[in-house]
Amino acid sequence: MTHIDKSKPVMITGATGYVAGWLLKKLLKKGITVHAAVRNPEDEEKLVFLNELAVNSPGKIKYFKSDLLNYGSYAQAMEGCELVFHTASPFALDVNDPVKDLIEPAQLGTRNVLEQANNTLSVKRVVLTSSCAAIFGDNADLMQTPNHIFTEEIWNTSSTPKHNPYSYSKTLAEKEAWHIHDKQSRWDLVVINPSLVLGPAVNPLVNSSESFKIIKQFGDGTFKTGVPKLGFGIVDVRDLAFAHYQAGFVPEAKGRHIVSGHNTFFLAMAKTLLPRYGNKYPIPQKEVSKWLIWFIGPMLNKALTRKFISRNVGYPWIGDNSKSKTALGVSYRPLVETMTDTFQQLIDNKIL
Protein backbone atom coordinates (compact mmCIF):
# COMPACT_ATOMS: atom_id res chain seq x y z
CA MET A 1 0.00 0.00 0.00
CA THR A 2 1.26 3.45 -0.91
CA HIS A 3 0.23 6.49 1.13
CA ILE A 4 0.78 9.83 -0.60
CA ASP A 5 1.38 12.93 1.52
CA LYS A 6 -0.98 15.64 0.23
CA SER A 7 1.21 18.38 1.69
CA LYS A 8 3.90 17.47 -0.87
CA PRO A 9 3.71 18.76 -4.47
CA VAL A 10 2.27 16.58 -7.26
CA MET A 11 3.64 16.66 -10.82
CA ILE A 12 1.50 16.52 -13.98
CA THR A 13 2.81 16.13 -17.52
CA GLY A 14 0.62 17.49 -20.33
CA ALA A 15 -0.79 20.00 -17.84
CA THR A 16 -2.55 22.09 -20.51
CA GLY A 17 -4.32 19.03 -21.94
CA TYR A 18 -7.94 17.89 -21.97
CA VAL A 19 -7.81 15.32 -19.14
CA ALA A 20 -5.20 17.21 -17.11
CA GLY A 21 -7.39 20.33 -16.95
CA TRP A 22 -10.07 18.61 -14.86
CA LEU A 23 -7.50 16.70 -12.81
CA LEU A 24 -5.68 19.96 -12.03
CA LYS A 25 -8.94 21.54 -10.96
CA LYS A 26 -9.59 18.72 -8.48
CA LEU A 27 -6.04 18.79 -7.08
CA LEU A 28 -6.15 22.56 -6.60
CA LYS A 29 -9.54 22.33 -4.87
CA LYS A 30 -7.98 19.89 -2.40
CA GLY A 31 -5.29 22.46 -1.60
CA ILE A 32 -2.48 20.56 -3.31
CA THR A 33 0.52 22.26 -4.93
CA VAL A 34 0.79 21.17 -8.57
CA HIS A 35 4.05 21.13 -10.50
CA ALA A 36 2.75 21.67 -14.03
CA ALA A 37 5.20 20.43 -16.66
CA VAL A 38 4.54 22.40 -19.85
CA ARG A 39 6.39 23.03 -23.09
CA ASN A 40 6.42 26.80 -22.75
CA PRO A 41 5.84 28.37 -19.30
CA GLU A 42 6.07 31.82 -20.94
CA ASP A 43 2.97 31.27 -23.10
CA GLU A 44 0.52 33.15 -20.88
CA GLU A 45 -2.37 32.79 -23.33
CA LYS A 46 -2.17 28.99 -23.13
CA LEU A 47 -1.92 29.04 -19.33
CA VAL A 48 -4.61 31.61 -18.56
CA PHE A 49 -7.30 29.01 -17.83
CA LEU A 50 -5.01 27.16 -15.39
CA ASN A 51 -4.13 30.40 -13.62
CA GLU A 52 -7.84 31.16 -13.23
CA LEU A 53 -8.34 27.75 -11.60
CA ALA A 54 -5.52 28.49 -9.15
CA VAL A 55 -6.87 31.94 -8.22
CA ASN A 56 -10.17 30.37 -7.12
CA SER A 57 -8.64 27.42 -5.23
CA PRO A 58 -6.63 26.82 -2.06
CA GLY A 59 -3.96 24.92 -4.07
CA LYS A 60 -1.08 26.44 -6.09
CA ILE A 61 0.46 25.90 -9.53
CA LYS A 62 4.15 26.12 -10.30
CA TYR A 63 5.21 25.86 -13.97
CA PHE A 64 8.26 23.98 -15.24
CA LYS A 65 9.60 23.89 -18.79
CA SER A 66 9.60 20.27 -19.99
CA ASP A 67 9.40 18.33 -23.23
CA LEU A 68 8.45 14.70 -23.83
CA LEU A 69 11.43 14.10 -26.10
CA ASN A 70 13.99 16.11 -24.10
CA TYR A 71 15.69 13.62 -21.78
CA GLY A 72 16.06 14.93 -18.23
CA SER A 73 13.73 17.87 -18.76
CA TYR A 74 11.33 16.68 -16.01
CA ALA A 75 13.98 16.61 -13.27
CA GLN A 76 13.19 20.01 -11.79
CA ALA A 77 9.40 19.56 -11.97
CA MET A 78 9.56 16.16 -10.27
CA GLU A 79 11.83 17.21 -7.42
CA GLY A 80 10.13 16.72 -4.04
CA CYS A 81 7.05 15.01 -5.54
CA GLU A 82 5.76 11.71 -4.17
CA LEU A 83 3.11 11.42 -6.91
CA VAL A 84 3.51 11.85 -10.68
CA PHE A 85 0.65 11.92 -13.21
CA HIS A 86 1.86 11.23 -16.74
CA THR A 87 -1.04 12.36 -18.95
CA ALA A 88 0.92 13.77 -21.91
CA SER A 89 0.70 11.83 -25.19
CA PRO A 90 -0.42 12.86 -28.68
CA PHE A 91 -3.97 11.85 -29.73
CA ALA A 92 -4.44 12.04 -33.49
CA LEU A 93 -5.90 9.61 -36.01
CA ASP A 94 -4.95 11.24 -39.31
CA VAL A 95 -1.17 11.81 -39.31
CA ASN A 96 1.48 12.03 -42.03
CA ASP A 97 4.24 10.19 -40.19
CA PRO A 98 2.92 7.74 -37.54
CA VAL A 99 6.40 7.02 -36.16
CA LYS A 100 7.41 10.66 -35.74
CA ASP A 101 3.97 12.07 -34.85
CA LEU A 102 2.62 9.33 -32.56
CA ILE A 103 4.86 6.39 -31.75
CA GLU A 104 8.08 8.16 -30.75
CA PRO A 105 6.44 10.85 -28.56
CA ALA A 106 4.32 8.21 -26.78
CA GLN A 107 7.02 5.60 -26.18
CA LEU A 108 10.06 7.84 -25.70
CA GLY A 109 8.05 10.36 -23.66
CA THR A 110 6.93 7.61 -21.27
CA ARG A 111 10.51 6.37 -21.00
CA ASN A 112 11.72 9.91 -20.28
CA VAL A 113 9.19 10.51 -17.48
CA LEU A 114 9.52 7.09 -15.81
CA GLU A 115 13.32 7.02 -15.93
CA GLN A 116 13.17 10.42 -14.23
CA ALA A 117 10.99 8.78 -11.55
CA ASN A 118 13.81 6.25 -11.11
CA ASN A 119 16.21 9.15 -10.54
CA THR A 120 13.94 11.11 -8.16
CA LEU A 121 14.07 9.53 -4.70
CA SER A 122 10.91 11.26 -3.44
CA VAL A 123 8.61 9.52 -5.99
CA LYS A 124 6.38 6.79 -4.55
CA ARG A 125 3.73 6.39 -7.27
CA VAL A 126 3.28 7.10 -10.98
CA VAL A 127 -0.21 7.24 -12.50
CA LEU A 128 -0.06 6.67 -16.25
CA THR A 129 -2.80 7.75 -18.67
CA SER A 130 -2.81 4.86 -21.09
CA SER A 131 -5.88 3.96 -23.16
CA CYS A 132 -8.28 1.15 -24.02
CA ALA A 133 -6.35 1.36 -27.31
CA ALA A 134 -3.62 -0.59 -25.47
CA ILE A 135 -6.21 -3.32 -24.85
CA PHE A 136 -7.78 -3.55 -28.32
CA GLY A 137 -6.99 -2.36 -31.84
CA ASP A 138 -10.22 -3.07 -33.72
CA ASN A 139 -13.72 -3.82 -32.47
CA ALA A 140 -13.42 -7.19 -34.25
CA ASP A 141 -10.78 -8.13 -31.64
CA LEU A 142 -13.73 -8.58 -29.26
CA MET A 143 -14.54 -11.86 -31.04
CA GLN A 144 -11.20 -13.33 -29.85
CA THR A 145 -11.63 -12.40 -26.16
CA PRO A 146 -12.95 -14.65 -23.38
CA ASN A 147 -16.73 -14.07 -23.03
CA HIS A 148 -16.52 -11.41 -25.81
CA ILE A 149 -15.63 -8.58 -23.45
CA PHE A 150 -12.53 -6.40 -23.11
CA THR A 151 -10.86 -6.66 -19.68
CA GLU A 152 -7.64 -5.41 -18.09
CA GLU A 153 -5.92 -8.76 -18.76
CA ILE A 154 -6.06 -8.24 -22.55
CA TRP A 155 -3.42 -6.51 -24.68
CA ASN A 156 -3.76 -5.07 -28.17
CA THR A 157 -2.05 -7.42 -30.65
CA SER A 158 -3.73 -6.28 -33.89
CA SER A 159 -2.33 -2.75 -34.35
CA THR A 160 0.83 -1.87 -36.29
CA PRO A 161 2.56 1.36 -37.40
CA LYS A 162 0.45 1.16 -40.58
CA HIS A 163 -2.86 -0.11 -39.15
CA ASN A 164 -4.27 1.91 -36.21
CA PRO A 165 -0.93 3.61 -35.44
CA TYR A 166 -2.44 5.59 -32.54
CA SER A 167 -3.48 2.35 -30.82
CA TYR A 168 -0.05 0.90 -31.55
CA SER A 169 1.61 3.94 -29.95
CA LYS A 170 -0.46 3.60 -26.77
CA THR A 171 0.32 -0.14 -26.55
CA LEU A 172 4.08 0.44 -26.88
CA ALA A 173 3.99 3.30 -24.38
CA GLU A 174 2.18 1.30 -21.70
CA LYS A 175 4.42 -1.74 -22.21
CA GLU A 176 7.43 0.57 -21.85
CA ALA A 177 5.99 1.85 -18.55
CA TRP A 178 5.51 -1.65 -17.13
CA HIS A 179 8.99 -2.69 -18.31
CA ILE A 180 10.61 0.25 -16.47
CA HIS A 181 8.42 -0.24 -13.38
CA ASP A 182 9.17 -3.95 -13.09
CA LYS A 183 12.93 -3.37 -12.91
CA GLN A 184 12.67 -1.41 -9.63
CA SER A 185 10.75 -1.58 -6.35
CA ARG A 186 10.66 1.96 -4.92
CA TRP A 187 7.63 3.40 -6.74
CA ASP A 188 4.45 1.73 -7.90
CA LEU A 189 2.59 2.16 -11.20
CA VAL A 190 -1.17 2.61 -11.52
CA VAL A 191 -2.54 2.68 -15.07
CA ILE A 192 -5.76 4.27 -16.30
CA ASN A 193 -7.15 2.89 -19.59
CA PRO A 194 -9.92 5.23 -20.78
CA SER A 195 -12.16 4.60 -23.77
CA LEU A 196 -13.09 7.56 -26.04
CA VAL A 197 -13.05 10.68 -23.84
CA LEU A 198 -15.87 13.22 -24.26
CA GLY A 199 -17.26 16.05 -22.15
CA PRO A 200 -16.61 19.79 -21.83
CA ALA A 201 -13.05 21.07 -21.62
CA VAL A 202 -11.69 23.28 -18.83
CA ASN A 203 -9.46 24.78 -21.51
CA PRO A 204 -11.52 25.93 -24.52
CA LEU A 205 -8.33 25.82 -26.65
CA VAL A 206 -8.41 21.98 -26.68
CA ASN A 207 -11.64 21.99 -28.69
CA SER A 208 -9.60 21.00 -31.73
CA SER A 209 -8.92 17.51 -30.34
CA GLU A 210 -10.21 14.34 -32.02
CA SER A 211 -12.96 13.95 -29.39
CA PHE A 212 -14.43 17.35 -30.28
CA LYS A 213 -14.12 16.71 -34.02
CA ILE A 214 -16.43 13.70 -33.65
CA ILE A 215 -19.09 15.65 -31.74
CA LYS A 216 -18.79 18.60 -34.14
CA GLN A 217 -19.61 16.26 -37.04
CA PHE A 218 -22.94 15.42 -35.39
CA GLY A 219 -23.94 19.06 -35.80
CA ASP A 220 -22.14 20.37 -38.89
CA GLY A 221 -23.86 18.20 -41.52
CA THR A 222 -21.03 15.67 -42.01
CA PHE A 223 -23.34 12.84 -40.91
CA LYS A 224 -26.68 14.29 -42.02
CA THR A 225 -27.36 11.25 -44.24
CA GLY A 226 -26.48 8.89 -41.40
CA VAL A 227 -23.67 7.46 -39.29
CA PRO A 228 -21.72 4.21 -39.54
CA LYS A 229 -22.74 1.38 -37.23
CA LEU A 230 -19.63 1.78 -35.12
CA GLY A 231 -19.37 0.69 -31.48
CA PHE A 232 -17.59 2.87 -28.92
CA GLY A 233 -16.73 2.94 -25.28
CA ILE A 234 -17.34 6.46 -23.92
CA VAL A 235 -16.11 8.10 -20.72
CA ASP A 236 -16.82 11.62 -19.48
CA VAL A 237 -13.62 13.62 -18.98
CA ARG A 238 -14.83 14.68 -15.50
CA ASP A 239 -15.30 11.04 -14.42
CA LEU A 240 -11.90 10.22 -15.92
CA ALA A 241 -10.22 13.01 -13.94
CA PHE A 242 -11.81 11.61 -10.75
CA ALA A 243 -10.45 8.15 -11.65
CA HIS A 244 -6.96 9.64 -12.01
CA TYR A 245 -7.23 11.40 -8.64
CA GLN A 246 -8.31 8.17 -6.95
CA ALA A 247 -5.53 6.23 -8.70
CA GLY A 248 -3.10 8.67 -7.13
CA PHE A 249 -4.40 8.67 -3.58
CA VAL A 250 -6.15 5.34 -2.90
CA PRO A 251 -3.36 3.43 -1.09
CA GLU A 252 -4.43 0.00 -2.42
CA ALA A 253 -4.72 1.06 -6.10
CA LYS A 254 -2.65 -1.10 -8.43
CA GLY A 255 -2.49 -2.39 -12.00
CA ARG A 256 -4.62 -1.40 -15.01
CA HIS A 257 -8.14 0.06 -14.90
CA ILE A 258 -10.61 0.25 -17.79
CA VAL A 259 -12.33 3.61 -17.26
CA SER A 260 -15.36 3.67 -19.54
CA GLY A 261 -18.90 4.64 -18.64
CA HIS A 262 -20.86 3.38 -21.65
CA ASN A 263 -20.73 0.68 -24.32
CA THR A 264 -22.57 2.41 -27.15
CA PHE A 265 -22.86 3.13 -30.89
CA PHE A 266 -22.60 6.30 -32.97
CA LEU A 267 -26.36 6.42 -33.50
CA ALA A 268 -27.18 6.08 -29.78
CA MET A 269 -24.74 8.95 -29.12
CA ALA A 270 -26.43 11.12 -31.74
CA LYS A 271 -29.91 10.34 -30.41
CA THR A 272 -29.05 11.86 -27.01
CA LEU A 273 -28.75 15.25 -28.81
CA LEU A 274 -32.04 15.11 -30.73
CA PRO A 275 -34.47 16.37 -28.03
CA ARG A 276 -32.48 19.55 -27.36
CA TYR A 277 -30.77 20.28 -30.69
CA GLY A 278 -32.67 18.33 -33.35
CA ASN A 279 -34.64 21.37 -34.56
CA LYS A 280 -31.56 23.56 -35.14
CA TYR A 281 -28.83 21.15 -36.22
CA PRO A 282 -28.69 18.24 -38.72
CA ILE A 283 -28.27 15.58 -36.02
CA PRO A 284 -28.06 12.13 -37.69
CA GLN A 285 -31.09 9.92 -37.16
CA LYS A 286 -30.14 6.70 -38.98
CA GLU A 287 -27.25 4.42 -39.81
CA VAL A 288 -25.75 4.07 -43.28
CA SER A 289 -24.79 0.73 -44.80
CA LYS A 290 -21.32 -0.72 -44.40
CA TRP A 291 -20.82 -0.92 -48.19
CA LEU A 292 -21.37 2.84 -48.51
CA ILE A 293 -18.79 3.54 -45.77
CA TRP A 294 -16.47 1.09 -47.51
CA PHE A 295 -16.85 3.07 -50.73
CA ILE A 296 -16.60 6.68 -49.47
CA GLY A 297 -14.74 6.31 -46.13
CA PRO A 298 -11.17 6.38 -47.48
CA MET A 299 -12.02 9.57 -49.41
CA LEU A 300 -13.27 11.30 -46.24
CA ASN A 301 -10.40 10.45 -43.89
CA LYS A 302 -7.05 8.69 -44.29
CA ALA A 303 -7.70 6.80 -41.05
CA LEU A 304 -10.83 5.21 -42.55
CA THR A 305 -8.96 2.55 -44.48
CA ARG A 306 -10.80 -0.43 -45.96
CA LYS A 307 -9.16 -2.64 -43.34
CA PHE A 308 -10.35 -0.36 -40.53
CA ILE A 309 -13.89 -0.32 -41.94
CA SER A 310 -14.06 -4.09 -42.35
CA ARG A 311 -12.79 -4.73 -38.81
CA ASN A 312 -14.82 -2.06 -36.97
CA VAL A 313 -18.05 -1.09 -38.71
CA GLY A 314 -20.88 -3.39 -37.61
CA TYR A 315 -19.08 -4.54 -34.45
CA PRO A 316 -19.97 -3.51 -30.88
CA TRP A 317 -17.47 -2.32 -28.26
CA ILE A 318 -17.94 -3.98 -24.88
CA GLY A 319 -15.62 -3.23 -21.96
CA ASP A 320 -15.71 -4.37 -18.33
CA ASN A 321 -15.50 -1.26 -16.09
CA SER A 322 -16.14 -3.10 -12.80
CA LYS A 323 -12.59 -2.67 -11.46
CA SER A 324 -12.77 1.12 -11.84
CA LYS A 325 -15.95 1.10 -9.74
CA THR A 326 -14.76 -1.20 -6.97
CA ALA A 327 -11.07 -0.24 -6.73
CA LEU A 328 -11.30 3.48 -7.51
CA GLY A 329 -14.89 4.29 -6.52
CA VAL A 330 -15.79 5.75 -9.92
CA SER A 331 -19.48 6.28 -10.72
CA TYR A 332 -20.32 7.27 -14.28
CA ARG A 333 -22.65 10.09 -15.30
CA PRO A 334 -25.35 9.52 -17.96
CA LEU A 335 -24.30 9.59 -21.62
CA VAL A 336 -26.87 12.31 -22.37
CA GLU A 337 -25.16 14.65 -19.89
CA THR A 338 -21.74 14.10 -21.46
CA MET A 339 -23.03 14.55 -25.01
CA THR A 340 -25.11 17.69 -24.37
CA ASP A 341 -22.40 19.39 -22.29
CA THR A 342 -19.84 18.77 -25.06
CA PHE A 343 -22.17 19.89 -27.86
CA GLN A 344 -23.22 23.00 -25.95
CA GLN A 345 -19.60 24.00 -25.38
CA LEU A 346 -18.98 23.80 -29.14
CA ILE A 347 -21.96 26.12 -29.67
CA ASP A 348 -20.86 28.53 -26.93
CA ASN A 349 -17.35 28.70 -28.38
CA LYS A 350 -18.80 29.32 -31.87
CA ILE A 351 -17.23 26.15 -33.24
CA LEU A 352 -20.74 25.03 -34.25
SSE topology:
Layout: E1 10-13, H1 18-29, E2 33-38, H2 44-55, E3 60-65, H3 75-78, E4 83-86, H4 98-119, E5 125-129, H5 165-182, E6 188-194, E7 196-198, H6 210-219, E8 231-236, H7 237-249, E9 255-259, E10 262-265, H8 266-271, H9 274-277, H10 290-300, H11 306-312, H12 322-328, H13 335-348
Parallel strand pairs: 1-2, 1-4, 2-3, 4-5, 5-6, 6-9, 7-8
Antiparallel strand pairs: 8-10
CATH topology: Rossmann fold
Distance between the termini: 47 Å
At CATH level 2, the architecture is 3-Layer(aba) Sandwich
Outline the biggest β-sheet.
7 strands, parallel
CATH superfamily: NAD(P)-binding Rossmann-like Domain
Give the beta-strand count. 10
User: So what's the overall shape?
Assistant: globular
Number of domains: 1
Strand residue content = 5-15%
Structural class: alpha/beta
InterPro entries: Epimerase_deHydtase, NAD(P)-bd_dom_sf, NAD(P)_dehydrat-like
Keywords: Oxidoreductase
Domain NAD-dependent epimerase/dehydratase: 10-246
Organism: Saccharicrinis carchari
